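ok here's ATP-binding protein:
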Amino acid sequence: MRILLVGAGGVGDAFAKIIARRTFFDHVIVSDYDIARAKRTIVAIGLKHGHAVASRFSAEQIDAGDPDVVASVARQHGATHVMNAVEPKFVPTVFAGALAAGCDYLDMAVSLSEPHPTDPYHQTGVMLGDDQFAQAADWETAGRLALVGMGVEPGLSDVFARYASDHLFRQIEELGTRDGANLVVRDDAGNEIFAPSFSIWTTIEECLNPPLIFERDRGWFTTPPFSEPEMFDFPEGIGRVECVNVEHEEVVLMPRWLDAKRVTFKYGLGEEFIGVLKTLHLLGLDRVDPVRVRSASGPVLVAPRDVVAACLPDPATIGPRMTGKTCAGVWVTGTGLNDRPREVYLYHVADNEWTMREYDTQCVVWQTALNPVIALELLAAGTWGGIGVLGPEAFDAKAFLDLMSAPESEGGYGQPWGMEDRLAS
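and the structure:
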Protein backbone atom coordinates (compact mmCIF):
# COMPACT_ATOMS: atom_id res chain seq x y z
CA MET A 1 0.00 0.00 0.00
CA ARG A 2 1.43 3.34 -1.15
CA ILE A 3 -0.52 6.30 0.21
CA LEU A 4 -0.60 9.81 -1.22
CA LEU A 5 -1.47 12.06 1.71
CA VAL A 6 -2.87 15.33 0.38
CA GLY A 7 -2.42 18.03 3.01
CA ALA A 8 0.15 18.37 5.80
CA GLY A 9 -1.80 20.75 8.02
CA GLY A 10 -3.01 19.79 11.49
CA VAL A 11 -4.90 16.62 10.54
CA GLY A 12 -2.48 15.56 7.81
CA ASP A 13 0.48 15.98 10.16
CA ALA A 14 -1.31 13.93 12.83
CA PHE A 15 -2.20 11.23 10.28
CA ALA A 16 1.47 10.84 9.31
CA LYS A 17 2.62 10.70 12.95
CA ILE A 18 0.04 8.03 13.78
CA ILE A 19 0.69 5.83 10.75
CA ALA A 20 4.45 6.08 11.36
CA ARG A 21 3.97 3.62 14.24
CA ARG A 22 2.34 1.02 11.98
CA THR A 23 3.85 -1.48 9.54
CA PHE A 24 0.98 -2.28 7.15
CA PHE A 25 1.95 0.29 4.48
CA ASP A 26 4.91 0.52 2.12
CA HIS A 27 5.26 4.27 1.69
CA VAL A 28 3.48 7.56 2.40
CA ILE A 29 3.94 10.57 0.11
CA VAL A 30 3.25 13.60 2.32
CA SER A 31 2.13 16.38 -0.03
CA ASP A 32 1.11 19.97 0.49
CA TYR A 33 0.93 23.20 -1.50
CA ASP A 34 3.65 24.39 0.89
CA ILE A 35 6.19 21.58 0.65
CA ALA A 36 7.99 22.94 3.72
CA ARG A 37 5.06 21.77 5.84
CA ALA A 38 5.32 18.26 4.39
CA LYS A 39 9.06 18.20 5.08
CA ARG A 40 8.55 19.37 8.67
CA THR A 41 6.22 16.45 9.29
CA ILE A 42 8.79 13.95 8.00
CA VAL A 43 11.58 15.56 10.05
CA ALA A 44 9.41 15.23 13.16
CA ILE A 45 8.82 11.54 12.40
CA GLY A 46 12.56 11.01 11.99
CA LEU A 47 13.34 12.69 15.30
CA LYS A 48 10.72 10.54 17.07
CA HIS A 49 11.26 7.18 15.38
CA GLY A 50 14.60 7.30 13.59
CA HIS A 51 15.80 7.26 10.00
CA ALA A 52 14.48 3.80 9.12
CA VAL A 53 10.89 4.87 9.80
CA ALA A 54 11.28 8.32 8.22
CA SER A 55 12.66 6.71 5.05
CA ARG A 56 9.18 5.29 4.42
CA PHE A 57 7.94 8.87 3.91
CA SER A 58 8.70 11.40 1.19
CA ALA A 59 7.61 15.00 0.60
CA GLU A 60 5.97 16.40 -2.52
CA GLN A 61 4.47 19.72 -3.59
CA ILE A 62 0.87 19.50 -4.79
CA ASP A 63 -2.00 21.73 -5.83
CA ALA A 64 -5.08 20.09 -4.31
CA GLY A 65 -7.31 22.36 -6.38
CA ASP A 66 -6.21 20.80 -9.68
CA PRO A 67 -7.38 17.21 -10.31
CA ASP A 68 -4.79 16.73 -13.06
CA VAL A 69 -2.00 17.61 -10.65
CA VAL A 70 -3.39 15.25 -8.00
CA ALA A 71 -3.57 12.44 -10.57
CA SER A 72 -0.09 13.20 -11.87
CA VAL A 73 1.51 13.12 -8.41
CA ALA A 74 -0.35 9.88 -7.58
CA ARG A 75 0.87 8.22 -10.78
CA GLN A 76 4.41 9.54 -10.38
CA HIS A 77 4.74 7.86 -7.00
CA GLY A 78 2.74 4.71 -7.79
CA ALA A 79 0.13 5.51 -5.16
CA THR A 80 -2.54 2.90 -4.49
CA HIS A 81 -4.56 5.10 -2.12
CA VAL A 82 -5.21 8.83 -1.90
CA MET A 83 -5.83 10.17 1.62
CA ASN A 84 -7.54 13.56 1.47
CA ALA A 85 -6.59 15.74 4.47
CA VAL A 86 -7.31 19.21 3.10
CA GLU A 87 -10.28 21.55 3.45
CA PRO A 88 -13.57 20.10 2.15
CA LYS A 89 -13.69 22.74 -0.59
CA PHE A 90 -10.98 20.64 -2.28
CA VAL A 91 -12.94 17.37 -2.11
CA PRO A 92 -14.18 17.48 -5.75
CA THR A 93 -10.70 17.94 -7.21
CA VAL A 94 -8.88 15.42 -5.00
CA PHE A 95 -11.74 12.95 -5.48
CA ALA A 96 -11.53 13.32 -9.28
CA GLY A 97 -7.73 13.11 -9.28
CA ALA A 98 -7.76 9.87 -7.31
CA LEU A 99 -10.21 8.23 -9.70
CA ALA A 100 -8.26 9.41 -12.73
CA ALA A 101 -5.09 7.88 -11.27
CA GLY A 102 -6.82 4.55 -10.58
CA CYS A 103 -6.42 4.87 -6.79
CA ASP A 104 -8.70 4.07 -3.92
CA TYR A 105 -9.68 7.17 -1.96
CA LEU A 106 -10.45 8.22 1.62
CA ASP A 107 -11.56 11.53 3.09
CA MET A 108 -12.71 12.85 6.45
CA ALA A 109 -15.27 15.36 5.15
CA VAL A 110 -17.47 15.02 2.07
CA SER A 111 -18.32 17.43 -0.73
CA LEU A 112 -20.00 20.64 0.40
CA SER A 113 -23.70 21.44 0.40
CA GLU A 114 -25.62 24.30 -1.16
CA PRO A 115 -28.67 25.64 0.73
CA HIS A 116 -32.10 25.59 -0.86
CA PRO A 117 -32.37 28.79 -2.94
CA THR A 118 -35.72 29.96 -1.56
CA ASP A 119 -36.47 28.00 1.64
CA PRO A 120 -33.09 27.13 3.22
CA TYR A 121 -34.35 26.59 6.77
CA HIS A 122 -36.93 23.96 5.88
CA GLN A 123 -35.89 22.30 2.63
CA THR A 124 -32.60 20.79 1.51
CA GLY A 125 -30.74 22.00 -1.55
CA VAL A 126 -27.61 20.15 -2.61
CA MET A 127 -26.79 17.97 0.40
CA LEU A 128 -23.40 17.07 1.79
CA GLY A 129 -21.82 14.34 -0.33
CA ASP A 130 -24.37 14.55 -3.16
CA ASP A 131 -21.65 15.27 -5.71
CA GLN A 132 -19.63 12.24 -4.62
CA PHE A 133 -22.52 9.78 -4.43
CA ALA A 134 -23.65 10.91 -7.89
CA GLN A 135 -20.36 9.49 -9.20
CA ALA A 136 -20.70 6.10 -7.50
CA ALA A 137 -21.24 4.30 -10.81
CA ASP A 138 -17.93 5.65 -12.12
CA TRP A 139 -16.07 4.24 -9.13
CA GLU A 140 -17.89 0.92 -9.43
CA THR A 141 -17.03 0.68 -13.13
CA ALA A 142 -13.39 1.38 -12.30
CA GLY A 143 -13.45 -1.24 -9.54
CA ARG A 144 -12.18 1.32 -7.04
CA LEU A 145 -13.31 2.27 -3.54
CA ALA A 146 -14.02 5.78 -2.28
CA LEU A 147 -14.47 5.61 1.50
CA VAL A 148 -15.97 8.97 2.40
CA GLY A 149 -16.41 10.59 5.82
CA MET A 150 -13.80 8.41 7.58
CA GLY A 151 -12.57 10.86 10.24
CA VAL A 152 -13.93 11.00 13.78
CA GLU A 153 -17.20 12.87 13.10
CA PRO A 154 -18.04 11.67 10.56
CA GLY A 155 -16.15 8.39 10.77
CA LEU A 156 -15.86 6.86 14.20
CA SER A 157 -19.35 8.13 15.03
CA ASP A 158 -20.69 6.19 12.04
CA VAL A 159 -18.79 3.08 13.13
CA PHE A 160 -20.43 3.38 16.55
CA ALA A 161 -23.83 3.69 14.89
CA ARG A 162 -23.26 0.54 12.83
CA TYR A 163 -22.09 -1.32 15.96
CA ALA A 164 -25.22 -0.27 17.86
CA SER A 165 -27.41 -1.38 14.97
CA ASP A 166 -25.70 -4.77 14.67
CA HIS A 167 -25.09 -5.66 18.30
CA LEU A 168 -27.16 -3.58 20.73
CA PHE A 169 -30.60 -2.73 19.31
CA ARG A 170 -33.50 -4.50 17.71
CA GLN A 171 -35.08 -1.19 16.63
CA ILE A 172 -33.52 2.28 16.69
CA GLU A 173 -35.53 5.40 17.39
CA GLU A 174 -32.72 7.94 17.08
CA LEU A 175 -29.06 7.99 16.13
CA GLY A 176 -27.82 11.23 17.63
CA THR A 177 -24.18 12.18 17.18
CA ARG A 178 -23.13 14.32 20.16
CA ASP A 179 -19.77 16.12 20.24
CA GLY A 180 -18.51 18.02 23.29
CA ALA A 181 -15.32 19.12 25.02
CA ASN A 182 -13.91 21.11 27.92
CA LEU A 183 -10.90 22.43 26.00
CA VAL A 184 -9.35 25.76 26.96
CA VAL A 185 -6.64 27.68 25.06
CA ARG A 186 -4.58 30.32 26.88
CA ASP A 187 -2.09 33.00 25.83
CA ASP A 188 1.38 33.50 27.30
CA ALA A 189 -0.12 35.41 30.23
CA GLY A 190 -2.51 32.57 31.04
CA ASN A 191 -5.61 34.33 29.76
CA GLU A 192 -8.23 32.24 27.96
CA ILE A 193 -8.38 33.17 24.25
CA PHE A 194 -10.63 32.41 21.29
CA ALA A 195 -8.74 29.81 19.27
CA PRO A 196 -10.81 27.09 17.57
CA SER A 197 -9.26 23.63 17.86
CA PHE A 198 -10.29 22.73 14.31
CA SER A 199 -10.23 24.55 10.98
CA ILE A 200 -12.31 27.73 11.37
CA TRP A 201 -13.07 27.57 7.63
CA THR A 202 -14.74 24.17 8.14
CA THR A 203 -16.33 25.18 11.44
CA ILE A 204 -18.03 28.20 9.86
CA GLU A 205 -19.28 26.00 7.02
CA GLU A 206 -20.76 23.45 9.41
CA CYS A 207 -22.24 25.82 11.96
CA LEU A 208 -23.76 28.55 9.79
CA ASN A 209 -25.24 26.34 7.10
CA PRO A 210 -28.82 25.15 7.75
CA PRO A 211 -28.57 22.09 10.03
CA LEU A 212 -29.75 18.83 8.51
CA ILE A 213 -32.12 16.34 10.19
CA PHE A 214 -33.42 12.99 8.92
CA GLU A 215 -36.74 11.42 9.83
CA ARG A 216 -37.92 8.18 8.27
CA ASP A 217 -41.42 9.47 7.53
CA ARG A 218 -40.23 12.86 6.28
CA GLY A 219 -36.81 12.33 4.75
CA TRP A 220 -34.15 15.01 5.05
CA PHE A 221 -35.07 18.55 6.06
CA THR A 222 -33.35 21.60 7.54
CA THR A 223 -33.74 23.99 10.47
CA PRO A 224 -32.21 27.39 11.38
CA PRO A 225 -28.62 27.34 12.74
CA PHE A 226 -28.17 26.53 16.44
CA SER A 227 -31.70 25.12 16.75
CA GLU A 228 -33.05 22.69 19.39
CA PRO A 229 -30.51 23.39 22.17
CA GLU A 230 -30.15 20.63 24.76
CA MET A 231 -27.89 19.92 27.71
CA PHE A 232 -25.92 16.71 27.22
CA ASP A 233 -23.78 14.90 29.80
CA PHE A 234 -20.37 13.99 28.43
CA PRO A 235 -18.21 11.38 30.21
CA GLU A 236 -14.74 11.37 31.79
CA GLY A 237 -15.06 14.68 33.57
CA ILE A 238 -16.19 16.82 30.64
CA GLY A 239 -19.66 17.22 32.12
CA ARG A 240 -22.80 18.95 30.89
CA VAL A 241 -22.47 20.94 27.67
CA GLU A 242 -25.19 22.71 25.70
CA CYS A 243 -25.42 21.16 22.23
CA VAL A 244 -27.21 22.56 19.17
CA ASN A 245 -28.10 21.30 15.71
CA VAL A 246 -25.29 21.62 13.17
CA GLU A 247 -25.03 20.49 9.55
CA HIS A 248 -22.93 17.33 9.47
CA GLU A 249 -22.22 14.28 7.36
CA GLU A 250 -23.59 11.67 9.76
CA VAL A 251 -27.13 12.78 9.01
CA VAL A 252 -26.49 12.10 5.32
CA LEU A 253 -24.51 8.89 5.74
CA MET A 254 -26.27 6.92 8.46
CA PRO A 255 -29.72 6.65 6.81
CA ARG A 256 -28.12 5.23 3.65
CA TRP A 257 -27.13 2.03 5.48
CA LEU A 258 -28.84 2.00 8.88
CA ASP A 259 -32.51 1.86 9.83
CA ALA A 260 -33.45 4.59 12.32
CA LYS A 261 -36.56 6.73 12.74
CA ARG A 262 -34.49 9.87 13.28
CA VAL A 263 -30.85 10.95 12.77
CA THR A 264 -29.35 14.13 14.20
CA PHE A 265 -26.03 15.82 14.86
CA LYS A 266 -25.52 18.25 17.75
CA TYR A 267 -22.33 20.06 18.63
CA GLY A 268 -21.34 21.48 22.01
CA LEU A 269 -20.24 24.93 20.86
CA GLY A 270 -20.77 27.09 23.93
CA GLU A 271 -22.33 30.55 24.20
CA GLU A 272 -19.14 32.46 23.31
CA PHE A 273 -18.43 30.43 20.18
CA ILE A 274 -22.01 30.76 18.96
CA GLY A 275 -21.80 34.52 19.55
CA VAL A 276 -18.63 34.80 17.48
CA LEU A 277 -20.13 32.80 14.63
CA LYS A 278 -23.29 34.92 14.63
CA THR A 279 -21.17 38.08 14.51
CA LEU A 280 -19.10 36.77 11.60
CA HIS A 281 -22.31 36.02 9.74
CA LEU A 282 -23.81 39.43 10.56
CA LEU A 283 -20.71 41.15 9.18
CA GLY A 284 -20.52 38.94 6.10
CA LEU A 285 -17.16 37.55 7.18
CA ASP A 286 -18.35 33.98 6.67
CA ARG A 287 -18.62 34.51 2.89
CA VAL A 288 -16.48 32.46 0.51
CA ASP A 289 -17.06 34.61 -2.59
CA PRO A 290 -14.12 37.02 -3.04
CA VAL A 291 -14.63 40.73 -2.38
CA ARG A 292 -12.51 43.58 -3.69
CA VAL A 293 -10.24 45.05 -1.01
CA ARG A 294 -8.02 48.10 -1.33
CA SER A 295 -4.39 47.54 -0.40
CA ALA A 296 -1.14 49.49 -0.62
CA SER A 297 -0.33 47.70 -3.88
CA GLY A 298 -3.80 48.21 -5.35
CA PRO A 299 -7.15 46.39 -5.30
CA VAL A 300 -7.09 42.65 -4.51
CA LEU A 301 -9.78 39.99 -4.42
CA VAL A 302 -10.01 38.03 -1.18
CA ALA A 303 -12.62 35.75 0.42
CA PRO A 304 -13.68 37.10 3.83
CA ARG A 305 -13.66 33.61 5.36
CA ASP A 306 -10.07 33.13 4.28
CA VAL A 307 -9.17 36.36 6.06
CA VAL A 308 -10.79 35.11 9.28
CA ALA A 309 -8.86 31.85 9.01
CA ALA A 310 -5.60 33.72 8.42
CA CYS A 311 -6.13 35.95 11.48
CA LEU A 312 -6.76 33.12 13.95
CA PRO A 313 -4.11 30.77 15.35
CA ASP A 314 -3.39 27.71 13.23
CA PRO A 315 -5.14 24.77 14.97
CA ALA A 316 -1.98 22.72 14.41
CA THR A 317 0.01 25.11 16.64
CA ILE A 318 -2.25 25.56 19.68
CA GLY A 319 -1.65 22.18 21.33
CA PRO A 320 0.93 23.44 23.85
CA ARG A 321 -1.50 26.18 24.97
CA MET A 322 -4.52 23.88 25.26
CA THR A 323 -5.82 21.79 28.16
CA GLY A 324 -8.79 19.47 28.48
CA LYS A 325 -10.48 16.63 26.67
CA THR A 326 -12.65 16.18 23.59
CA CYS A 327 -15.39 13.57 23.22
CA ALA A 328 -16.96 12.17 20.07
CA GLY A 329 -19.85 9.76 20.26
CA VAL A 330 -23.33 8.60 19.31
CA TRP A 331 -26.36 8.61 21.58
CA VAL A 332 -28.71 5.81 20.53
CA THR A 333 -32.27 5.23 21.71
CA GLY A 334 -34.69 2.48 20.84
CA THR A 335 -35.54 -1.12 21.67
CA GLY A 336 -32.75 -3.37 22.91
CA LEU A 337 -32.19 -6.99 22.01
CA ASN A 338 -34.30 -7.96 25.04
CA ASP A 339 -37.25 -6.02 23.57
CA ARG A 340 -37.06 -3.41 26.33
CA PRO A 341 -36.34 0.34 25.92
CA ARG A 342 -32.65 1.15 25.77
CA GLU A 343 -30.58 4.34 25.67
CA VAL A 344 -26.81 4.12 25.09
CA TYR A 345 -23.97 6.56 24.51
CA LEU A 346 -20.99 5.11 22.61
CA TYR A 347 -17.95 7.37 22.71
CA HIS A 348 -14.21 7.97 22.51
CA VAL A 349 -12.35 10.60 24.52
CA ALA A 350 -8.97 12.12 23.66
CA ASP A 351 -6.96 13.99 26.29
CA ASN A 352 -4.85 16.85 24.96
CA GLU A 353 -2.07 16.31 27.50
CA TRP A 354 -1.67 12.70 26.33
CA THR A 355 -1.78 13.39 22.58
CA MET A 356 0.75 16.20 22.95
CA ARG A 357 3.08 14.00 25.00
CA GLU A 358 2.79 10.96 22.74
CA TYR A 359 2.42 12.55 19.29
CA ASP A 360 3.16 16.27 19.68
CA THR A 361 -0.30 16.84 18.22
CA GLN A 362 -3.35 18.49 19.76
CA CYS A 363 -6.19 16.17 20.61
CA VAL A 364 -8.91 17.30 18.18
CA VAL A 365 -6.84 16.83 15.02
CA TRP A 366 -5.26 13.67 16.46
CA GLN A 367 -8.65 12.11 17.17
CA THR A 368 -9.76 12.97 13.63
CA ALA A 369 -6.64 11.49 12.02
CA LEU A 370 -6.64 8.25 14.01
CA ASN A 371 -9.64 6.70 12.29
CA PRO A 372 -8.58 6.75 8.62
CA VAL A 373 -5.32 5.09 9.67
CA ILE A 374 -7.29 2.26 11.28
CA ALA A 375 -9.52 2.02 8.19
CA LEU A 376 -6.50 1.81 5.89
CA GLU A 377 -5.04 -0.99 8.00
CA LEU A 378 -8.31 -2.93 7.76
CA LEU A 379 -8.32 -2.40 3.99
CA ALA A 380 -4.69 -3.53 3.73
CA ALA A 381 -5.51 -6.70 5.64
CA GLY A 382 -8.58 -7.41 3.50
CA THR A 383 -10.83 -7.22 6.59
CA TRP A 384 -12.64 -4.32 4.95
CA GLY A 385 -13.23 -4.13 1.23
CA GLY A 386 -15.62 -2.87 -1.41
CA ILE A 387 -16.05 -0.78 -4.52
CA GLY A 388 -18.01 2.36 -5.23
CA VAL A 389 -18.65 5.34 -2.96
CA LEU A 390 -19.25 4.02 0.55
CA GLY A 391 -19.51 5.44 4.05
CA PRO A 392 -18.11 3.87 7.25
CA GLU A 393 -21.51 2.30 7.97
CA ALA A 394 -21.00 -0.06 5.03
CA PHE A 395 -18.27 -1.99 6.89
CA ASP A 396 -17.97 -4.30 9.89
CA ALA A 397 -17.85 -2.07 12.97
CA LYS A 398 -16.66 -4.73 15.40
CA ALA A 399 -13.46 -5.33 13.43
CA PHE A 400 -12.70 -1.61 13.57
CA LEU A 401 -13.43 -1.22 17.28
CA ASP A 402 -11.49 -4.38 18.17
CA LEU A 403 -8.38 -3.14 16.35
CA MET A 404 -8.78 0.35 17.79
CA SER A 405 -9.08 -0.83 21.41
CA ALA A 406 -6.55 -3.68 21.44
CA PRO A 407 -3.29 -2.83 23.25
CA GLU A 408 -0.40 -1.72 21.08
CA SER A 409 1.57 -4.68 22.43
CA GLU A 410 -1.03 -6.93 20.79
CA GLY A 411 -1.05 -5.11 17.45
CA GLY A 412 -3.84 -2.66 18.22
CA TYR A 413 -3.99 1.08 18.69
CA GLY A 414 -4.46 1.12 22.45
CA GLN A 415 -7.53 3.36 22.27
CA PRO A 416 -10.40 1.99 24.37
CA TRP A 417 -13.87 3.26 23.62
CA GLY A 418 -16.69 3.65 26.09
CA MET A 419 -20.35 2.71 26.33
CA GLU A 420 -22.77 4.12 28.88
CA ASP A 421 -26.20 2.59 29.35
CA ARG A 422 -28.32 5.59 30.25
CA LEU A 423 -31.57 3.72 30.71
CA ALA A 424 -32.11 0.51 32.64
CA SER A 425 -32.22 -2.37 30.18
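+1. The mean pLDDT is 94.
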